[in-house]
Design brief:
The structure is a homodimer. By secondary structure, chain A is of the alpha/beta class. The first copy, chain A, is built from 17 helices and 28 strands. Chains A, B: Keywords: Exonuclease, Hydrolase, Metal-binding, Nuclease, RNA-binding, Zinc.
Chain lengths: 557, 557
């Protein structure tokens, strides 16, 4: 009877770990009312996005349908879920709902981007219910690596959808709500059409470990270490900050938090009433007067980020403090794939100073915030969905999770970014594919990933840049000589002559031979000059540079 | 009585895995006769060396003492040991000694670089002995991940030095000589002053596994796989190529080798008589006609290199072949730290096609070529050196290895690149530090790592490039308007006006206000203009670009 349908469309996060943005729709085809779950960022890298500050999902599809969008729901305060709220809110202009801690972080994002923080509305966990058009949405607590992480139950006339959020099956997570199988079973009991489920750790076949298993090894480390201990972890991992601080405190060490993100996170967690019984901390100023063996610094920079506290300590002094032989540096963290080189640089710098560097290779000092395969299976069993849609993972993880679900008797489908899937029936059906992609925050402004700007930068980084200027008079005749400037290239050719002079000579020769037609035609002239530059440069130094040509034509006034 | 001394100086490889280059000297201070062991390369990356083709040790110190250099010794044919021989030989111009397989590869390097391959001289293993000034050098076979890997015994009047080369304690390495504890003990028996020892896997506390353990799992994979199997490993790992090919052959699969390095390595190994009983192979052309389930491709690109066969298959078709759902891709390899992102890209592309991707995470399909800690300890015990100098490792590994050696009763010292250590006495003594560093092969020419060329490229990659041209007449007055060209930046400012126009306006204003002194002074003018460009760009789009200014002054003829 009803022609209404329930659709799902990931605009980010499906095929990557990062920039999560999941759209749900319900209503007649093309007139569905919509909600967006999460609006996160991805981090840039020098190989594919040099100079870019943040990567975000391209929301054009949603922006064009803004009148149908009811709300933005944020599951938790990690950057890949909340990071783009400030920068992209003005494109959507609907209320943002989140639980208290997450909402506080989201408001800071709005403020940073010059948006109104009042657009972010705090919602309590279930049974508190948001009525959003045809959707009834409840937040349910899950254990994760930061406080107040949540999944969401989305009830629609076509049935119940459960979005797991990022979760782990940890019954003793330290800070934040424990994994609660009873509650999850309760959610499943009323019948669930679709479970959208975290896929990050589907490849890991071991049962996950609890945050609580770290207490003893970290306490021992704080007692046994000879000199200063410096520990890094994600600033948002408030439970870990507490585990580290308590262990240090009990071992007679003063605790000093360093790095902007660390201070911001602990401040917000304190304001939200989450960070209770945290040991007293001292300022970096005060830390300078504490004997090294009585000190723990907790610093930012677990991923080797160049501007974070850890990298600054690796280079020398940070806020008046520095590391020495006999000190210990602890990575209470994992290295996100792709950051190995940056982390390695920090590790090696410390090793050169004689600092003992400890990481999680013996599995003593870190646990993941994501459910491993056995815990995912337990989640499937608790929620008992008709269909399972893997989210939050690279393609390989999504495929593995879908395979797993099918083997366990569920309907499943890999739904990559941009795929519109109809969830109304007994199995997911691909009904459309929409254009999606990435946009970059570059400095203070947005640019498109595909508009050639970053491509030009990469070309300059690989090939160097040759810049050619020449002046033509009213009769298209060369006035003076052409000039070539080179940046990022060897200044001399194979014979030792300056490369720019060699290029200039070849350009002059080319121009002397060029016909009147070429000289009058900007495009032709540019092409010809560019070809000459690339040919000469290849011949002289074996490089094909990026070439920019500026032809100035003097006109009669 | 004698004032002669035995010195050791790493120019590369100590503090990094890559570009090995170890100098030994014997004689009166400042007049030591020298030998160089290994001359390898390191690979570049986009973050720190974009566009660079290869990274090599800076040999200036050795070049200035070329008259004292007896020879270059190459332990084995991996790129980080032999890769720079062709490009840097002309700086040293002494004979290059290596065993047969290594010598063949070294000759190809010489040829590629336009040098005389006859400078490479083949040497047999011990007891064959090279007399090089005060040095008597013997090659001894070690097990590693390619054929004819060797350590060297260097006998000097001050005692015996043993350089382990890259080794693993594998008694069944498949192809190549097995680990031979008897022989090593024999070397140690006559008394060893110093062991320079591979440190790559010192962090790994498990005993190493043999190449032979891979035979069964790989054979099973070849039998069980439904579709085509494509496997990648280092081309030089000839034992692995054989393990893969034999397993496939026995499972009724035809074997096709793909990728330039793969063909080159197997050809050299065949010519050297090392690759015996290799199953017949077919051409890519012929492979097209073989049913998928009867085919194994062995391809280059285990590190996700963009131009290698694996990455091309990930993007689509390579030599007429492509991957499909149901096929299997096997990484019979490990990912070198820093390459995770590139490998991840390939893995995800295959996953998207529905290809099953297998790697070594279950430790079934790859073993390392380097000795783990227990095997290093066994090596110490066999050689029984007075002192142990860790080589071939990042700082962290060198420190760990030195700590281990000291705990086990040896003298030890971390000797980083550029440190000159006197080995004559009972313990190593730091006697000098020399300037060392890296040089880059960039296209067809060498550039210095520190000469600013690559720094400029990185700056353009991060900040974009603004190029300003202006013309001044004979009286230092502006002729026409200043032009600004932007590359790698958002073309419009915050108000939507073209960025280059905004810059040009600000430049014109600046020039109209500039005094005659500034206008006459190129440096002052450049500084002022650069500051204006960076200020405006920061204000408009939040970026600080690289700026190049060209001021053309028209002169009276």
């Amino acid at each position: 009877m009803s022609k209404d349908r329930l659709i799902y469309l990931p605009l980010g996060g499906a095929g990557e770990v990062g920039m999560n943005a999941y759209v749900f729709g319900y209503g007649p085809k093309g007139r569905e009312r919509l909600i967006l779950v999460d609006l996160g960022v991805t981090f840039s890298d020098m190989a594919s996005s040099p100079g870019v500050d943040l990567i975000m999902p391209d929301l054009r599809w949603l922006e064009e349908r803004r009148d149908r969008l009811e709300a933005i729901i944020i599951t938790h305060a990690h950057e890949d879920h909340v990071g783009a709220v400030g920068q992209l809110w003005h494109k959507l202009r609907v209320p943002v709902y989140a639980r208290d801690f997450t909402a506080r972080i989201a408001r800071l994002k709005m403020q940073d981007a010059g948006q109104d923080p009042e657009q972010v509305i705090t919602v309590g966990k279930a049974p508190e219910t948001l009525e959003l058009g045809p959707f009834r949405v409840q937040f349910f607590p899950v254990a994760h690596s930061l406080p107040e992480a949540s999944g969401v139950v989305i009830d629609t006339p076509a049935g119940r959808v459960v979005h797991s959020g990022d979760f782990k099956a940890d019954r003793t997570p330290g800070v934040g709500e424990p994994h609660d199988p009873e509650m999850l079973a309760q959610i499943g009991r009323s019948g669930v059409k679709a479970l959208l489920c975290d896929s990050t750790n589907v490849m890991n076949t071991h049962a996950g470990r609890s945050e609580a298993t770290l207490t003893a090894p970290i306490a021992q480390l704080m007692r046994d270490a000879r000199g200063m201990v410096v520990a890094t972890t994600f600033a948002s991992n408030v439970a870990r900050l507490k585990t580290l601080a308590v262990a240090a405190h009990e071992a007679g060490r003063s605790v000093c938090l360093m790095g902007r993100a660390m201070l911001r996170m602990t401040q917000v967690a304190t304001e939200a009433g989450i960070l209770k019984d945290f040991p007293p901390t001292i300022s970096p100023e005060a830390a300078k007067d504490v004997p090294r063996e009585k000190l723990l610094l907790i610093v930012t920079g677990s991923q080797g980020e160049g501007r974070a506290a850890s990298a600054q300590l690796a280079r020398g002094t940070y806020m008046g403090l520095n590391m020495k032989e006999g000190d210990t540096f602890l990575f209470s963290s994992m290295t996100i794939p792709g950051n190995e080189r940056e982390v390695g640089r920090v590790v090696n710098a410390f090793a050169r100073m004689g600092v003992d560097v400890l990481d999680n290779s013996a599995r003593l000092y870190h646990v993941s915030g994501h459910a491993n395969r056995p815990d995912l299976e337990a989640m499937h069993d608790l929620i008992q969905p008709q269909m399972l849609i893997p989210v939050h993972g690279e393609h390989r993880m999504l495929h593995e999770h879908a395979k797993l679900a099918i083997a366990r008797g569920m309907q499943s489908m890999v739904v990559p970014n941009g795929a519109v899937v109809d969830l109304t029936g007994a199995a997911p059906v691909l009904v459309d594919e929409v254009e999606t992609g990435r946009v970059y925050l570059d400095g203070s402004r947005m640019i498109g990933a595909m508009d050639g700007i970053v491509r030009d930068r990469i070309r300059m980084a690989i090939g160097g840049h040759v810049f050619v200027t020449l002046i033509l008079d009213e009769d298209d005749e060369l006035l003076g000589d052409p000039w070539a400037e080179i940046v990022g290239l060897r200044p001399t050719g194979k014979g030792g002559q300056p490369l720019n002079e060699i290029i200039e000579e070849e350009l002059a020769q080319y121009l002397s031979r060029a016909g009147a037609k070429t000289m009058a035609d900007d495009d032709k002239l540019n092409d010809g000059l560019r070809r000459v530059v690339r040919q000469v440069t290849m011949e002289e130094i074996g490089k094909k540079p990026e070439v920019t040509i500026v032809v100035s034509r003097l006109m009669n006034d």
